[in-house]
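hey team, just a heads up i'm posting the complex here instead of the shared drive bc the drive is being weird again. everything in one block, sequence lines first with there labels, then the predicted structure for the whole assembly after. its three chains so it's a bit long, scroll down
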Amino acid sequence: MYRVHNEVMSTRHILLGLLAGGPSHGYDLKRRHDERFPQARPLAYGQVYTTLQRLVRDGLAEVDGTDTDGGPERTKYRTTADGKHELADWVRQISAPAPHVVNEIFAKVVVAILAGGDPAAYLLDQRAAHMARMRELTAVKTAPGSDLSTVLSADYALNHLDADLRWMTTTADRLTTLTAEVDTA
Amino acid sequence: MIAGVVSAGSEGPNGRDSSGTRAGDKGAGGSRSGSLRADVRLAWLLTRGSDRREWWRVALTALGAALATGFALAALAVAAIRGYRHIAFASGLLDRPGERSGVVLTLVLLLVPVIGFLGQCARVGAVHRDRRLAALRLAGAGAAQVRRIAALESGLACLLGSAVAAVFCVLFLQGEWRQPPVLLWFGIALVAAAVPVLGALVSVLALRRAVASPLGRVRRVPPREGRGPGMPVPMAALGLLFVGLLLAPDTFGGYETAPVLVFAVVIGTGVGALWLTGATARFTGRILAARTADPATLIAAERLRDDPWAAARTHAAVLLVTVVGTGFVGLREVLLTSLRDRGEKMAASPLSFYTTGIDLTGAAVLVALVITLCGLGVGTAESVATRRRGLAAQAAAGVPRAVLGRALLLETALPLAPALLLAGSGGLLIGGWFAGIAHDGSRSVPYTALLVAPAVYVCCLLAAATSLPLLRRSVHPAELRYV
Amino acid sequence: MTTTNGEPSGGDTAPPLLTARRLAKTYGRTPALRGASVALRAGEILAVTGASGSGKSTLLHCLAGIVRPDAGTVECAGERLDTLPERRLSELRRTEFGVVFQFGQLIPELTVLDNVALPLLLAGTARGAAHERAGEWLERFGVLGQQLLRPGELSGGQAQRVSLARALVTGPKVVFADEPTGALDSLAGEQVMGALTHTARESGTAVLLITHDAQVAAYADRELRLSDGALAADGAETSAEVTS
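-- predicted structure starts here --
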């Protein structure tokens, strides 16, 4: 759940953003991405490569040259004027509020009621799992020397988990009413 | 859980505060009519719905008003007697105009400690009341309406006291005096009405800051700037002295006294002692706070330094009574010896006439002292009650109750000592001076008067100590539930 | 970590520092606690959560020896708190325990420095030495610059950090914190919680944290949920296992 926003986030814009700092090659971009977004799923190198090719195809980036210092041949990329324009547009665009309208937890609660399962037990387990993840994130956030981007992304996740948690607590308190409603529907 | 999640403060407000707000909502509706009836109903609702402390305040205020009315009416009745009249009681002390003026003056001056007492009563529940009135303002009541409600609250309490006192006074007069002048009845009605009106006016004055804005003193942190030295009590004393001298134009009969000068010394010493209380409170507070390693002394010293004039306000009446008391004890001794020296033949009346007069004055001084001590006790209790949540938190954090209790007593003991010393000296001066006039310097200073100030000191500590059981109850962990 | 309803059952760690068994407490006619059991190990940070009125604060008061339970036992390092005389309890709270409430534990008339030094003064430490120790703690929590102010002049976050300093100045074994961030915005609350948990872990102080806020509870090693004065069977031990 809490990684959803990272997956929805456009990899091509992230890479464009990283390129804004100056020409880089694919492996370097992947490394910097993973450093910068420690809470996100690490980028696969293949994904970086295909994304870069699409950026070149769309005229947002171009090949800067190739490095062959000692190791294998590595293509360097740089952003174009269109790329900079596109990135500026993207940064200014607001994200659609409430992206998690389709809620898996809610779906499971309803299904549990329909199928005669134990939604209360499910909610308690889910709550425990959420709390455990929140503890992990808090530990990451409060670890000595954690940088601001780590703290901010952990905060983002924590607040979303907290929102889920509150919803689960309220739902647990309302299960009787909900059960009656689902059963009669 | 919903409430718990939505607001962190959801556990905070206690029932009392919310009851005040609820009543306030009703008030917003009634305010449009602006009628007195709506205000009276609101004042009644607020009083009825409030906790025990409010009832204490009402009861104590009514008691103070009853005392004030009683003394005022007695003074009025005595002043209304014209010419020579044989009166059955007080050993003929009320028979002649000369002595009567002395009695009138004494009765009027007894109002001084009563005013001090009423001042302490007004403080009972003041913080809670301020918050409640501010809640009324938030609920939409206008400043004038809130002021009216507050005035009605204390006015009604005073009315209760003054009505009771007036009824008893009238019953007594009808029994003792066959045809009192009609003017006296008017006077009685005037006094009985003036006491509640004055009470209401004073409460409006006292609340001028609380009702100024809807947020008023809702904040838990009181304003930093300390209040002034609290001159109302000595000012009131001066005013009453003036009234007393008007009512009793003749000087005391029988002796070569100069009451105006005596009272000037009394007032002067009282004001001096009052100023000294504030100054020493500030000084001892600063010195002790910087040096002491004893937690109780530290807490008391910092409280003194924080608001040095609080001690002065509380002790104003105590100091005046001490001056008068010391002076009186000295005077009494001189008078009695001189009476015995002169013997029966020199005096115009039997010896019992003089001794009764002296004893009655002594009784008046004692009554004043008792009223003053009650005021002090009420003031100390109020200071504990206001701080009870903080005190409970201190106790929970492991500060022993004994330390908190000692801090409470030290708060009274520290500033009072030097002030009582000065007040006692002033009284001695009066007594010694009088002894000088009476005996051409042949007699020594009346030393029994020396005991008055220490005795008053001990009584004050005892009065403050009456709050210790309340302190014990206040540090109960149940108070933490409202933290 | 193996716990069942908060009671210790495993032998892999040291015996618990503070154990409460089947506590019951009633205020007037309202039952605040109905058979709650808790075990707090040395150096552990335990969050007790639950809805308003679930008995969280009463549980803390019983464990800290502020309130005597109507039934059940509280044991701290082999000593029964529920039967100790008040004088000894007061001493225990002063020396072995520290408390942080949402509000009210600082004396408004004392300076920040004196407030923090107070527990030391109560123990008979000289003024200078007490001030020195208090100053060190104030510095640690970043409020040394405010040492001569009165509590009323502090921001909420500063006041709570001063309260933490006062709670920790005697080197207690347990700190009891009742909604320590209840009156703070989230950033100030984060600073207070960060300071509390960091210092507690560093000095091996156990913390019993009462909160209704999951983000605050996430600072703890373990969570116990109270529901109507008893522990909710909500898999507190599951969450504990996930962490450890």
